[in-house]
Specification:
Blueprint (H helix, E strand, L loop, with lengths): L2 H10 L9 E3 H10 L6 H12 L5 E3 H12 L5 H8 L18 H13 L3 H10 L7 H21 L28 H4 L7 H22 L1 H22 L9 H17 L9 H24 L13 H18 L10 H28 L8
Antiparallel strand pairs: 1-2
Helix pairs in contact: 1-4, 2-3, 3-4, 6-7, 6-10, 8-10, 10-11, 10-12, 11-12, 11-14, 11-15, 12-14, 14-15
């Protein structure tokens, strides 16, 4: 069954005479049971479960059409199609996400499903198929490593706030400094260094509150790719737009995750069931804007003579751009293969072009433009 045939069936039965876009959930349930629809039992159960999950007793038939199209679309992964063919994605008539008596971990999985996924069928599918192994180790490991590095440098420098003002701080082999561009690892390892406790706390909180749920749903490979792409884009953007400034902190990766998640929530606003959506969206934007404002103030505050320019804020903005472009493409592709989507290849081409341009810029532009960079520590 395709989009047109399902819409035609609904219109012929006059289930939506006023063209509101919604039909009664009970009416639709009766429809799928009383007519010989060309759907296997697994797909039929998915449609019925989606209809019965609506709290207002109505269901948007366009969403039902999208579901039918998705189940027969070539964009779905082979494992997804095999699961449907074998009846493994059949959903019970009772709402499993709302049943009482769930354990602590299952309640957390239910929270993640509501927080991340905009489609009721995907939420239920994720709730059933989720396994605790492998755990979301990437974001937890990165956060732990950042905390350990910060504690080590804090104890060594005896300074926990605005560590970049300490003359020994920039001597770290992890910090990106324009005078050490040839040491390519610094374009990534700067994410383990932070300006102070305030930046580390902000980044660690967002990595655990947003990064871990995203990794649970979309997997280690996709979320690590998005995070590291934001980190790399951050340092390369600074090397192009703020050529004299160093970079520290994982804000490029953090803003890639946050921007992707917020953009996904906005684009699927009606389908998202996370509580207090608007309030949380406003708070997130205020916090992210405040962090950018702090970074701008720090960059243009009078530096100490021995410390040179303070870290740039451009990594935040570059991470946000990566999140809205690459990240949104990833988050909208739950249970779908990225390589089958034209948009994914467009994003990769754009990102690859940026990387190539940034490499040539770092190799040739500094000498050609006669940039006066501070001496490396």
């Amino acid at each position: 069954m395709d989009r047109s045939s399902l819409l035609q069936l609904i219109q012929e039965q006059q289930l939506d005479p006023e063209n509101t876009g919604f039909i009664g959930a009970d009416t639709f349930t009766g429809l799928v049971h009383s007519h010989e629809l060309p759907l296997d039992p697994a797909k039929l159960d998915m449609l019925v479960a989606l209809a019965q999950s609506n709290e207002q007793g109505q269901v948007c038939y366009q969403e039902l059409v999208d579901l039918v199209s998705a189940t027969i679309s070539s964009k779905r992964s082979s494992s997804f199609k095999r699961a449907i063919a074998n009846g493994q994605r059949a959903l019970p008539r009772d709402g499993p996400l709302d049943e009482p008596g769930l354990g602590v971990y299952k309640r957390f999985v239910r929270y993640v499903a509501y927080e991340i996924l905009p489609c009721e069928v995907d939420r239920r599918w994720y709730f059933y198929r989720h396994r605790s192994c492998p755990p979301p180790v990437f974001m937890a490991s990165v956060t732990l490593a950042q905390i350990i590095v910060f504690l080590c440098y804090g104890a060594r420098l005896n300074k926990w706030v605005l560590q970049t003002y300490h003359p020994e701080y920039m001597k770290s082999p992890l910090v990106y400094h324009p005078g050490h561009r040839a040491r390519a690892w610094r374009f990534l390892t700067y994410m383990f260094m932070h300006v102070g406790l305030e930046q580390l706390g902000f980044n660690a909180l967002l990595q655990l509150m947003i990064g871990v749920p995203l990794e649970m749903v979309h997997g280690l490979l996709r979320i690590s790719l998005l995070y590291l792409a934001g980190v790399l884009a951050g340092s390369l953007t600074v090397s192009i737009t703020d050529m004299r400034a160093p970079v520290v902190g994982g804000s490029g990766g953090v803003y890639a995750l946050c921007s992707a998640h917020l953009a996904n929530v906005v684009m699927n606003w009606a389908g998202m069931r996370c509580p207090y959506k608007l309030l949380r969206m406003v708070l997130a934007l205020v916090c992210m804007s405040s962090e950018v404002g702090r970074a701008v103030w720090l960059r243009f505050s009078p530096p100490l003579p021995a410390s040179g320019p303070q870290p740039s804020f451009m990594a935040h903005l570059a991470g946000a751009v990566v999140g809205v472009s690459m990240g949104l493409t990833i988050l909208r592709s739950y249970e779908e293969r990225l390589r089958d989507q034209c948009g994914w290849w467009v994003v990769l081409l754009a990102y690859g072009t940026f990387l190539l341009f940034a490499v040539f810029w770092n190799v040739f532009a500094y000498d050609l433009l006669g940039a006066h960079i501070p001496p490396p520590p």
